[in-house]
Write a structure and sequence with these properties.
Elements: H1 2-5, H2 16-33, H3 45-56, H4 60-63, E1 69-74, H5 81-93, E2 98-105, H6 108-120, E3 128-130, E4 146-149, H7 161-170, E5 189-191
Parallel strand pairs: 1-2, 1-4, 2-3, 4-5
Helix pairs in contact: 3-5
Amino acid sequence: MSRFAEIDLHPDQVSNLEMGYLYEELIRRFSELSNETAGEHFTPREVIRLMVELLFAEDDDLLRKPGIVKTLFDPACGTGGMLSVAEDRLRELNPDARLEVFGQELNDETYAICRSDMMLKGQDASNIASGNSFSDDGHPGRRFDYLLANPPFGVEWKKVRDVVEDEHKSSASPDASAPGHRGSTTAASCSSNT
């Protein structure tokens, strides 16, 4: 710990990008030490940036309008990296735009980190819900402009299979073409398996 305290991590010495990489590396190492899959906890920044570029590509002109406000939802938000990168990218496109971010996270520790990060960035931390987005919608009735997700593909969802399939069967939505579809997005969706 004393060696760590000697390191100068001031923003003048370590950029946000470098700090992000450092954070991700710590998450990966601690995941390995606890016998967890690192992919459950983070998506590399390069992958997130590509996903965000693809997500916003069709709306480039719209997102450049003065005062535009959009919403983004990540149903497996982890520590909130995707939400932060999307917010940063929209700010680069249009400093007058605002992205209201929403998320849901199953893991209590990463949920807490995400909410803390949202508070530090001036976002509404209450927009981050705890729980399983398959079986317990943390934002019932909400609609979002964008959905961005990299769900933990290696994690079993058998425990909530019946709930997801029952919801699909009872859905009145005409475009409910897949189990668990909530019809909660109105724009683009993008996901990646890393």
